Prior knowledge:
Layout: E1 2-9, H1 14-28, E2 32-39, E3 47-49, H2 53-71, H3 97-101, E4 104-107, H4 117-124, E5 130-134, H5 171-183, E6 188-192, H6 195-203, E7 213-214, H7 229-236, E8 243-249, H8 259-272, H9 276-279, E9 280-286, H10 290-295, E10 300-304, H11 309-318, E11 321-324, H12 333-340, E12 345-348, H13 353-356, E13 363-366, H14 371-384, H15 387-401, H16 404-423
Parallel strand pairs: 1-2, 1-4, 2-3, 4-5, 5-6, 6-7, 8-9, 8-11, 9-10, 11-12, 12-13
Amino acid sequence: xxxxxxxxxxxxxxxxVAANRLNVALRKFGVDxxxxxxxxxxxxxxxxxIGAGRVHRAKSFARFVYERLTFLPYEKNAVLRYxxxxxxxxxxxxxxxxVRDADIIHLHWINQGYISLKGLEKLFETGKPVVxxxxxMWSFTGGCHYAGTCLEFLERCSFCPILKKPAKNDLxxxxxxxxKELYSNVLLHPVACSKWLRALSxxxxxxxxxxxxSIPNTIDTEVFQPLDKTECRKDLGLxxxxxxxxxxxxxxxxxxxxxxxxxxxxxxLLESFPVxxxxxxxxxxxxxxQETKDSIPFTIHRMNFISDISEIVKLYSASDxxxxxxxxxxxxNTVMESMACGTPVVGFCTGGVPEMIEHKHSGFLAEGRNALxxxxxxxxxxxxxxIDKMSANARNKVLKEYDGxxxxxxxxELYEKLLNSRSH
Length: 424
């Protein structure tokens, strides 16, 4: 059984991390699995880039720029610039040796100039079974990656709130119609990483007549595991005598990530419990401006972007809690990583997060878009609940449901099912 995973990158972005981890887990499981990416940032075994060198990188960047430039006339504002992908340019990889030799094509995140809608059509024309792991909603919408409160995708996208001029036959409507025709007569099996996304995907008119599975992302529990908290803090230069709250986002200004609710929650805690400031400090990884840092009334340790996995594990292990204020998320890698390291998570009860966190057992689920509820969760988890027990429960949840052998086994079962159905 030969599997080719198709994703824009091997490590850049949450979908890339998830796809890479699955590829590794399947290879350990004995499957002939490879990952075909537009640009590889590593030389890891089982990862193949469609090209290399300066010319290839220039062409990849040019496709990315072209897609963004052609979207500018439709762009509502810069904040939503990357919330929508028109998929109007890409490369044809249908004749790549890994695709030709594969028994199953496994799609992941293919946007930003990698695979266009026409490129998808070429892949479907190979006649091979296609599995598509949904790391967001793009596969069943008219172009947005997360629909928010919009439900147009249930029947036919139109009047898209992300576009400058929403209309009955706007860009989202045209892309939706194209996808419907594209998906109509192909052996395509969507897989949602969360039950939440599976429900939305199954209800959409694009996938309503297809079987949609729910298989979670995976994580290497031998790499992501609890380490000695004190030693980790010493190594990272973090205080030993404080309670540390960890927060991170690739872009803290992404409205969907809900950072403002965390900042509101911290101010609520400061007003309600002035002593809170003396005992709690904030650790932030990802993109955060000095202005934002200055606006948060707590001591902040800015870690910026960390690429070394061992350092990331130390960061989770050094922290007392991880806070995820996302307003809509699938099955966040950060939540899984934190729990694998035995660090309880406080997050909103939205998207796929409630499937990962058991309220007051392995973390705290706050009411969505409610800063007061988030503040309550932070306070109770740090000061009132049995955090050691929650830590053990979080780790056990990951071992039971997200370990590589478990998830790889579920995918192998699906692959075999698709191949058997094709042969009959």
